[in-house]
Design brief:
The protein is an all-alpha fold. Helix content is 80%, strand content 0%.
């Protein structure tokens, strides 16, 4: 009887250890996406705004953009708004995306950054590079604006991947304090998770429906991967989940990038 209890305890401990491992990965991805979002969308976004105002034609100075900012005017309130709302908002969304995407790009090695760039461009460029956005007509220099917006996607992707690698090395494998922190971060992430489908399927969203559905397929497949890892599930379910995840990733990439290229060409031309 004592032997049976010992074996059961070991199985439970092993399963708990795998659970903590998943929570640790969620924490690393979520924090990396958040930090990169605040830096790139907040600080970088403000720099892009300033640069575009400097190269814009004189007729655009003083006009109000679609986002409510006055061209050529730099204010503390405006800077804080970009940093807190734009940076933090994109950081939260970026953290969610990096978490659900990681199982499908972790094996890409040095090409992880490229894979993440492709995915976030496919998913988010339709919002940032929208042909009917009045800002492109107000600010002029459309090719430069498109290039700067694309640069932000590249910057976030590579920075987020790098930060995640740093956190992967620094975060403790397992301790009472770190486990509590991983649980807390994961619970916060779960409470913010509805932001992702809302962004994809909101009535004002320009994300193509097939791209949104593909992203959600990746998210569902990632959840299944965590369950498989924690419970050590074997059999054909693994192959089905792998197929679903890669199919969602590929579909989002293809259809999203086709739309992004089309939008960019329409703006520039």
């Amino acid at each position: 009887m004592g032997t049976q209890e010992t074996v059961a305890d070991r199985v439970t401990e092993s399963r708990w250890g795998r659970t903590v491992g998943v929570l640790r990965e969620i924490t690393a991805g979520g924090l990396a996406g958040l930090i990169a979002g605040v830096i790139v969308a907040g600080v970088g976004g403000r720099l892009v705004m300033r640069l575009t105002s400097l190269v814009s034609p004189s007729s655009s100075i003083g006009r109000t953009t679609g986002s409510g900012f006055r061209v050529g005017t730099v204010t503390l309130d405006g800077s804080l708004e970009v940093l807190l709302f734009l940076g933090l908002g994109f950081g939260v969304l970026g953290g969610l995306v990096l978490v659900i995407l990681w199982p499908w790009v972790s094996g890409w090695g040095r090409w992880r950054g490229i894979a993440v760039v492709g995915f976030v461009l496919a998913m988010g460029s339709t919002e940032a590079i929208e042909p009917h956005n009045i800002d492109f007509f107000i600010l002029g220099n459309r090719a430069l604006l498109v290039a700067l917006f694309l640069a932000l996607f590249f910057a976030w992707s590579f920075l987020a991947v790098w930060i995640r690698g740093v956190l992967e090395r620094l975060l403790p494998e397992r301790s009472r304090a770190s486990t509590a922190a991983y649980i807390l971060v994961t619970l916060i992430g779960l409470s913010l998770a509805p932001i992702l489908p809302f962004t994809l399927f909101d009535s004002d969203s320009d994300v193509p429906l097939i791209v949104g559905m593909s992203v959600m397929l990746v998210a569902i497949a990632t959840l299944a991967v965590w369950v498989i890892r924690i419970w050590e599930i074997r059999g054909p379910a693994i192959r089905a989940v792998q197929w679903a995840g890669h199919a969602g990733f590929g579909a989002a990439l293809v259809f999203g990038l086709l739309r992004a290229v089309s939008d960019a060409r329409q703006i520039i031309n």
